[in-house]
Every structure is written in C-alpha cells, then in structure tokens.
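for the record, two folds in this file. i put them one after another cuz i was lazy. first one right below, seq on top, structure tokens after. the second one comes after a little note so u can tell where it starts
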Amino acid sequence: MNRFHLCALAIILTGVFAGCSSTPVAPVETATTTPSPATSATTGTLGASGSVASSSVTTVALAPHLDPSSQISKERSVYFDYDGFSIKSEYAVLIERQGRYLRSQPTLTVKIEGNADERGSAEYNLALGQKRAEAVLKALEIYGAKDTQMEAISWGRERPKATGHDEAAWAQNRRVDLVYPRQ
C-alpha cells in the first residue's frame, strides 16, 4: 500500500509540474492600422507580430490651481514686512491673477492663511496673521473674487515655512498663503 501511495503521488506531481510548464505564448494578431497624421491622440506601436497596433490616449486638462506648472499654482504666497500687513506693490500681479481666476471659477473656494514669524506673543501673532489674511482677501475682491469664495484665517506663528531664528527665516514666515482644495 505504501508503494501505491508513492506512485500516485509521483503521477500527481508530474501532472502538476506539466501544467505549470512555461510554454511560449503565441503573439496575438492585431488589426493593422496606420495612424492618421491629423489625429494626434492616436499612436502606432509595432507589435510582436510586426503589425501596428493603435492606442488612444485621452488628454486630461488640470484646473490651473491643481496644475503644478501653472502660475496660479506656483505663485500663492504674499510676503510682508516686519510688523506690517500692507501688501507690497511687487505682489500686485499675483493678487490680480488670483482674483481674476477666482472670479472665473465662482464655485471654487480658497483659504487665505495668514502667518507671522516667531517674534511677539502668540496672541499678537494671531492678530497680525489675521490682518494680513484680511488684507489679501480685500485685494482679491477688487479683482472680482466673491467674499463667499474666501475664508481668511490666521495661524500666527504656528506654521513656519522656515525653522531658523534669523531674519532670512523670519522673512519667509511673514506671509499669507492661498490654499485651494485638492480636487
């Protein structure tokens, strides 16, 4: 009986290993298609059989606030002088661009987040960050952004961009960031 079990096991294993053999897969024949020069979304690739297989690629356009190469996405921070909340003239183009963009997207919302450097009390920095955020909000309204699209908040000194304790770091932390939803 022992010999019978060994023979049965050998037959079963032979069948299993034979089923797992690596036989080459025959190439699938595809219809020969020549890409049209007028259709930029269709590209031809040479298949294993030497025929040209076609594929369509759909181009998806990202909204400017989601596209990392867009100016709307790249330029979202306004920096301020020490202890101040007046918007510098160098940020006029950024404010205009963002305001007009919000006007063109009436369902889009943005958080206007005011920040301060580490100097001063927590209460003072929260108030200063809020004044900075509200200054940017009012400037965006000039270019057509609606009050209902924007929310001005302050982080005070709680969200520094730079962690140093010198003027270079403080200058990066005295800012307002425009934060759009990620969808």
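(here's the note) second protein begins now
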Amino acid sequence: MSSYLNSFKEYEYYITPSDMMEYLYCPRFIYYMKVLGIQQYEEQSYKVQKGRSIHEKKEEENKNYLRKKIGVENKEVDVQLVCHELKIRGIVDEVLTLQDGTMAPLDYKFAKYEEKIYKTLRTQTILYSIMIEKVYNKKVDRGFIVYCRGGDKLVEVSIKAKDKEEVKKQISAYQKVLTGYFPKATGYKSRCMDCTYKNICIC
C-alpha cells in the first residue's frame, strides 16, 4: 500500500469525495472555486471542529464493537486511496475486510441519523467503494456510516453496480465543469440564500 500511494500529493488535482459533495449541493460551487479560482472564506463552524475531535478519538473508542456487529476480520485506519482511471482520490476513516471476503469503507460523521441517508453521503460512500475496489482488487458491495451524534448509530449503505455507474457519470459531469463549462445552478433555490457566491452568480 505505501509504495502504491507514496506520491499522494502528486494527485492533488484529482476529485475528492468532499469536492463531489459540493458539486452535488450546487455544480456552480466547482465552477467558481476550481475554474475561476474564487475561494470560499468561511469560519470554521462548531460542527466542523467537533467533527475533527470525534475523528481524533474514534480509534480509541472503536476497538471491538465493529468486529462483533458486522463481522470485521481486519481494518485499516485513515487510508489514502487513489483511482487513476477516474482521477479521484480521498482519505477514508476505515477500510474494513469482512468475513465474506469483501471489503467496505466506513466513515464517521458528526451528525444525527434522520432515518435516511442523504445523497451526498451516499455518493461519498460509493466513491470510496470504487477506489477500494481499484486499490485492493476486492469486491465492495456495501459501506458503513457512523453517525456520532445520538449514540454512534452504525448504518449500512448497500452499493450496487448501477450505483457505481451513476457516480461515474457524476464524475464525468464534474470534469466537464473543470474544462470551463458553466453548469446549471441547483434547483433548490433555498441553498442560494447563504451561498458565498450569491452576489456574482447568474441564476
């Protein structure tokens, strides 16, 4: 693994799951940030700071319950992943090897589970699954999210072949924006109210 990713900084312009989450929130985020180079200047929120604290403690607090609950044979922590073919990269909290021989990503979120998995988080999990399959050459048909608010709720995300193909289409659409294509704004106009770019965006 270390030899495969010893030049991780070389891929700093590859798409990350965080980039894709911003693209899904509104494609024009990527146009303004990546194409025009207009950066966001937002103060760190309590949620972000708390999320970092959660990540720092996760290894100490999460030694045994996963093995018992979902049949973990092995886990790697804070794993750097790269898929050259799709030009994507990311660091996943944990890569799990399961008893059935498959692998799975696990990510911690400082959020409360609201009885549904939002598209952004689902897409992030699928991106990790695609990269794990490329790096380890193992099947990935599920991922896991731990919602750290409200009792560390562990939620399984089913991942099918069609889900991976859909995410690959989203990657292609993202890459089109990087060529200078001006995308349509989000259809959810409530998202525009507090947007960093609302004063320059042509809706």
